[in-house]
Amino acid sequence: MELTKEEESALKGEKGEVLELAYRILVATGEAINADRLVPIHWAHLSGVNYNTIGDAGEEFLSKLSKDAKVQVKTTVNPMGFDIDKVSDYKLDDDFIKKQQSISESYKKMGVVPSFSCIPYEIFDLPQKNTQVSFAESNAAIYANSIAHLKTNKESAFSALASALTGKSPYADLRKEDSASPNLTIQMKVKNSNELTYGLLGYFAGKIAGSSVRISGTNDLDKRSCKALCGGMGTSGQCGKFVLDDNDDNQSEKVDFDNKEMQNILDELNTTDSGDLVVLGSPQLGLEEISDLALMLKGRSFKKRCMIFCPRAIQQQTSELGYANTLKRAGCEMLFDCCTCLTPLIDKDNTDGVITNSIKGSYYLKNSNDVKVNLKPLSQIIDDETKW
Description:
Blueprint: H1 5-11, H2 17-32, E1 38-40, E2 43-46, H3 51-65, E3 74-77, H4 94-109, H5 120-123, E4 133-135, H6 138-146, H7 157-166, E5 168-170, E6 184-188, H8 195-208, E7 212-216, H9 223-236, E8 241-244, E9 253-257, H10 259-269, E10 277-280, H11 287-297, E11 301-302, E12 305-310, H12 315-320, H13 323-329, E13 332-336, E14 353-356, H14 359-367, E15 372-375, H15 378-385, E16 386-387
Parallel strand pairs: 2-3, 2-4, 6-7, 6-9, 7-8, 10-12, 10-14, 12-13, 14-15
Antiparallel strand pairs: 1-5, 11-16
């Protein structure tokens, strides 16, 4: 891989240990994916924020790194493990709270924007099309490539952090202007689809597609369904981009996503027919979805406990527009800075089963939290789990 003189100097340690480590990560990553050089990026979005994900080793690494490291580009971060304003409402381990706060402070010291959101594309202004970014959150990387028309590979926690510290990323795969067209087309054959259907479609696509995939038959893709598609796809495989295209003239292999395939995925992820907790927000709910939810819940209230996960960036707007009061009256707990996935707020010892419309959430609740999950679309959740 070709490096500039400045990059070579940093790699040799002539600009300090932090940049040496960062360039070592980028070079190793670049060689693994056959990159020919590094390119400047405009924005990095980091994972590796939740203490449940990175543990003691990650917390100690970030604490040490933050003494000297500073990010070189706009850098945002994924959700952490709790909402600091609500932490006293939950019986969390004191050590978890301490270590999670240490991780948060380390990122702040490095100049990272404390966004704690998995939907940076909804709460920050997007750069112009074809801008290079480095996103480690899988749903955000897929959204960036597919909807926002930015360019990023599905980065690891380490490669995105290295990109933040250097302002560079390896130029390969989905970053290239002439990246290969998808060699697989998935034909959407399920009628009367909703966000759960698209989450299942994404999970199916992630399992069988390469780095990109073409999808046909999706003319009714609204924001909620789009996010569900990105979230499902990012959960099950390495696919980092989809192209919505109904042109039958392409020569790619074609695979149908029909009711049978949808049911196979549903059988894999749906592990119970009921639950005692409703969970919404994986990916986190943005302002538009909160508005829709508030409208759907007007005059209704949940018969069971309901947790809603959102980015803190929309907290003030939800209050000013009256959405927060509507949701509170409906029995919802709004939680900021955290997410359904890998949170200690949902514990198998206190929860028999979770009801959600999120494929991504169901996967992590099942495999990481060891909690049973009942999957159904939001409209059905409202019908089944609320009363007038």
